[in-house]
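quick one if you have a minute, typing this from the bus. theres a chain ive been looking at and ive put its sequence and its fold in token form underneath. please have a look and point out which stretches look like helix strand or loop to you. anything you notice is useful, everything is just below.

***
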Amino acid sequence: MQYILNAPSRLDATVKLPASKSISNRALIIHALSKGNMLPENLSVCDDTEVIVNAMMYRPDTIDIKAAGTAMRFMTAYLAVTPGEHTITGTERMKQRPIKILVDALRYLGADIEYLGEDGFPPLRIKGKPLNGGYIEIPANVSSQYISALLMIGPVLKNGLEIKMTGGIASRPYIDLTLWMMREFGADADWSDSETLKVNPHPYEQHKYIIESDWSASSYWYEMMTLAEDPESTVMFDGLFDASKQGDSIVKYIFSLMGVKTRFLSNGTEAAPTVRLKKWPCRLPRLDYDLLSAPDLAQTIVVTCALMDIPFRLTGLASLRIKETDRIEALKCELKKLGYVLRDENGDTLIWDGTRCEASMEPINTYQDHRMAMAFAPAAIKFPGLRINDPQVVTKSYPQFWDDLEMAGWKIEKIKD
């Protein structure tokens, strides 16, 4: 499937954002560990969340989490402390994504986990059983999801859990989000110092829980607003909080530097306010930013800066190498099709110094990566008729993305293979 995109001359849209995938997936694991009977409300309907829902609901012997990296990490820890024997597997790309750090930590705590293919990678056979817990040390500079997976099982371990993190900490806001949600469900968990987490053996409590909308999904609308040429363009959405615990809520600050102002309009209730995006005159000459705490915003920011002729140097991107695709290489390849020449350094830095080349305007490949599709779609504002291959990958986190674009006035021509 290929889509040909043409943007409206002016953006004027009210968008219902998807529920947060990050919060939904954590809430499902915590809910299951609490043995609750009330599912969290407003769960995400994206692929990554549905694979967890299906695994919890049907308890198959073999759990296929497809391309959902979060689900692989969270479910591995959950199954290790849940009675029963299961095999957990995924797509071919998932079988290339490392999980050794998490498996080593769980094995140290006494978990029974076996590799069914190459050591260090899925698929896994897991025989769940009660674990004592205790003290572990774990590298934290690869993926915060390993830390979150371990944290969430901490309250059900006999002796609780103490995690000493080494090598720097990637995506610290996601760890804070996990801790905050655990405490919402009654857990006794917090930082004991800047590199150590402590979870006491205090069981989760059941209660009603409502999922916030997804700040990551909002980033594509911030990108569209930045690229939109009509100064009267506006976008509005509900379900987001100014003081959100989602790490990607930093998007509102980053894009304020590029000319998009965020305003929270109170509706007089405790419900989330309405968010309104408006353009305002602001010209950023250059962006130097460390995205270690919000790597999922990288593609959105990279494409936006290039198309706005804003040179940039973005660091903290090492985790992009092990995402749905190697996102650093994918960005370099696809932006070159639009005439922008990027380079990378040290495995964690992406740079554009203004170097251009002749644009081939070949179709944008998405590499089975939802964020590649959504980050490049707004480029049609600057490149009418932009073509995107395999656009259906957006179902991983934002299933209604293309419907929302059409609602906002985009023309999408759909060409089947």
